[in-house]
Amino acid sequence: MAENFIAEAFSLLAIALVVIVLRWIARVITVGFSKLAADDYLMVIAGALYSAETVVAYYVGAKWKGLANSGMTPEQRAALDPQSVEYKLRVGGSKNQLTGWLVYTVLLWTLKTDGVNNMRIRIRIGTVLLAVTFLATFLTILLGCYPIARHWQVNPDPGNFCQPAISKLQVAVLITLNISTDFYLMSVPLPMIWKSRLATKKKWVLSIMFSGGILVMVAGILRCVLILTSGMDGPQQAGVWSIRESFIAVIVGNLPMLYTLLQRIQQGGPGSFAKSSGRRSYPLGSYQTGGSSKAGRKGKKFQHPLSMPNDTAMESDEQFVVEPKMEATQPPSTATGSIGQLHLNSGVGRSHDHGIRVQTDLHIESSEGTGQAVDRGNDYHQFPHTRV
User: Fold this and answer.
1) Closest C-alpha among 381, 379, 380, 345 to residue 364
2) pTM of the model
């Protein structure tokens, strides 16, 4: 079983790291290296934490033989020589278990933070919630047994709370706060997805991605149940299931970025990253809304809660459209006739030198015959220092 676990643990680690690398490739191609967001760097930290967690879990069996200061009767504790190899293994194994719990907690909450980096007011509540629940979980694991040295005390029996491999206090606090935060984070994007104008199929795709936390919750519950019911195997099971849960969390945390990458590749290959669709759409990112009578005054910045970092839209023919009031801007119009469709996009905006720029895009699609004729034209008019 130990050999199977080692192969599984390091295979999952390799897959997770590849997924993180692919996420970075997608982000760099999409927005450029200079515009990477904080959550992109958080994912690098998550990769390092997951690597550390895997090593710690490996040590549980490879170095400490699955032993800790649990699973012993009072008589066995009293008879165990403090100078014996078993005693040292149990002390070291208990320290390893405590380290594993702490790394595991930091990793999970780092991944949760990645999920809320670009959302708004409800998200600010979520950010505070994450900070409070992280501190509560971390401090419970570390200080739930005090003094800390009792975490690896063998004789006399330090009590269940001081046995990190099977501590009921740690399990109860972690499972409660972990699940509650996951539920809260999922409750934010899902209603917005189903109120959007996306096709039903795409709503389901996005809903599945944003509901990936359910898999993390299931793995977390299984981990806690197995820890409490595995008896002597509790320490080993703790390591095995922490790796599995963390792997699922890493994959789920990177799914939106990988979805963007796959969508772009599917639509036009790698070269599509450098192309624009030609039709006006609002990305899942932020843009300026509102006008001003005074030149140079900035409009209010609107950040959609489902936005990707740095104005990254989920590339598809049907964008997630949000329509706040926008002054001096005309929405695109579409005319349909017997020969196909004509898309007319016209917009008025202020140029960098404070003049007014009018842009008109003409896009004609013909549906006659087996082929399709497309004619695109762009007409730019610059009116320096003209007031609207």
Assistant:
1) 345
2) 0.67
